[in-house]
Fold each of these.
Amino acid sequence: MQSDFFQASAKILTVAELTRAIRGTLETKFGAVWVQGEISNYKLHPSGHQYFTLKDQRAQISCVIFRNTLPPFAQPLKDGAQVQIYGQISVFEARGQYQLSVQILQGRGVGLLQARFEALKRKLESEGLFDSEQKKPLPKFPTRVGIITSPSGAAIRDMLNVLKRRAPRLEIL
């Protein structure tokens, strides 16, 4: 019965063939595009290439600026900067990942996500929540621990077994 599913005429692709086909489709369909977003996870690689994530509130895409593509910026790139980018969609076949190869980058100030983060930080600071007098000393040994994981996975069972042996009085949340 299972052999009916695999018909002799069916084309079975290798991973490389599928990735190459995806690359061709993406690079042909989109070509070069303008995209606006906020920079995060910025890294300047020793090779001179620059890597970062361009994001908005609902999505993100990996970006690369190859070392000889653009002249040095008057202001260095940094996380939280709002930018408009003109670039080419490309697929890195070895990892099966797509990215935007940046050809033009225009700064547009501080991004919305960064601005919200800074506003929240200022608000909490004005409430005195970062003052050292507000901070409570951490106990030498915790009495209560919260574990965030799947309730039915092996990780929670392993953690509970280890904690039961090593810290039987510990309260687990």
Amino acid sequence: MEEVTLVGIDLGKHSFHLHAQDQKGKEVFRRKVTRRQLVVSAATWNSMKTDGLKFTLMKR
């Protein structure tokens, strides 16, 4: 599997859309996930450098 260098997350009320790209800009994956699935998915990603922004997922 290609190495993911960029992940975009479209935030919604009940679900999130994820889009990941490799260094060349080629799509690695695109999927729709729930809040719980997002936390599980993000835990499996290799550590990535952020763009100076920090986001915290909070339980409701």
Amino acid sequence: MLTAAKLPVSDLPTSLTNFYVAVDAGKVTGVIGLEIYGNYGLLRSLAVSPQYRKQGIANILLNEVECLAKSKKLKAIYLLTETASEYFKRKGYVSLSRGEVADEIKGSSEFSHVCPVSAMVMKKELN
């Protein structure tokens, strides 16, 4: 699913801790993950199968990850996107420059070399 959605997979951990999968009748319909770096989270791999879009699956998955981040007392969630900035803006994420990103996130493989520099950086503060 992630490859079909053109999302990076080369650096994903084998354990996939903090990843959620939506399933319908035994079929994977969506996925999302959260990597934790110190007091910050990095949203990874939000994808929903095309035939299951517009049914609220992405919203449910994103809510689960945000609840997880809050339960772990993270300060903020960052993400990189080339295609979904409008969706994330509607969910309270704001764009920022790469220079404004927490050092912990800058050290992640997704930020430092997996995602292209053209990807938009976004952040949501958690209260």
Amino acid sequence: MKSQNKASFQSIGLLIVLIAVGTFFVIRAIRDRRRNHGEYRPQFEELHHAKDLPYLQPPAVEGLI
């Protein structure tokens, strides 16, 4: 009977540790998401949208002085 109680306490302890670790990572992810929400990064926006611009043809040689 003693070994059964000991195993039960160990499994409960392991479950508590796993829940604590999972909670830590969930809270950390939520805080990180909130920290970056609504952040204004003009350089990133310019680089991101510059990839979508159409290719500009060079001017004709006759038009250059």
